[in-house]
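Internal ticket - ligand job 440, beta-D-fucopyranose:
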Amino acid sequence: MDLKRTDFPPGFLFGAATSSYQIEGHGFGGAGPTHWDTFAATPGNVVRGENGARACDHYHRFDEDLDLAAGMGLDAYRFSTSWARVLPEGRGTPNPDGLDFYDRLVDAMLARGLKPYATLYHWELPSALADLGGWRNRDIADWFADFATVLMRRIGDRVYAAAPINEPWCVAWLSHFLGLHAPGMRDIRAAARAMHHVGLAHGRAIQAMRALGMRNLGCVTNHEYTMPADDTPEAAAAAKLYDGIYNRWFLGAMRNAEYPTDVLELLAPHMPAGWQNDMAVIAEPVDWLGINYYTRKLIARGPSGLPGDFRELTAGLPTTSMGWEIVPEGLHYFLTWIDREYAHGLPIYVTENGMSADAPPDRPADDPERIGYLDRHLAQVRHAIADGADVRGYFIWSLLDNYEWALGYDKRFGLVHVDFETLERTPKASYYALQTALAR
Ligand code: FCB
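stdout (structure tokens):
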């Protein structure tokens, strides 16, 4: 790895990211059922029907995992908290073991000198709330703010930074229009409502955390570098709409209090009445922006010709084992574009970037391509900083191999290999490369 710590501005943070359902072991510690449990139990949704019941058993092994994070020389650790672990019914009586767990987890980070970056929601909605319509129900904004209050009353004094929702696009569009994540809906009205309520819940949770006196609150959006697949006007129009839904909808609302007009043309007929009155809450001021970036998309119009129907193509670039093309310059594009259009002077963090790679079964910790991927993306972060973007940190997805949602345990994103039979952890070559680089 070419990188040295001193290539970055003083105080620049290096971290790794994980999420609760993907690593903790949701079956442990009295957590309530979530829509991911039932989505996974429904045939056809998840590879081999795998779920997060045991995952990496981080619930019992977090000390070892945080030792690994600190041992790499990281400054920060981005984790998420499970709503159903804290409130098994989504509302009402908290689970004391759940609150204790996050309390111990945060203390364990601090004891190792890792700054805790908390995300309140990384996709496992309590089933009791899913029964009430989940993200389609406007009341979710208040349920979520109440969850934020219950949890942060306990740990908010010690988390270094917090963001309400990981990747609103996945929560809303991927899960209610494309049907690829829980709750697996494919309905434009459901999607429009989720697209709005996720922002409202974000704003209400920011207010709730501010009311507790918390500082350093942010938002985390994911982005795909979007280009038309060919020179036709149809592909240009499709790519523009895709970019609007993916890259401009949530930042437009959260940062500029407005939805992009091109996307509104599609969604306005399906939006909840009076949505305009919520924009000020959605745009509640934050202190930093987090960007998750993995790949680009070449977009053409989908076979139905309906707006919102897209074909996704690739152009023969090297890909990760997810089939995602490796396009590091997309990260520079987003850091500089978001700095210009949406940051309004706030610092930006890369809150996720990384790759899945298959290792040879006899050498599971061999991951030269991950080292190259990280090197090339970090070079783009430096380039964006040189071009004036105020980027303050970079989190690798992920610390551990984990439950990759609908793709189960097949896709390995970790700097640390996990044997899902024995749960043994083995640092990969990328882990050691980073350790060396950060010590320079
Ligand atoms: C992101 C998610 C994370 C993980 C990576 C690969 O979209 O935030 O949970 O699945 O992709």
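Auto-summary: The chain has 15 helices and eleven strands. The chain has one domain: 5-437.
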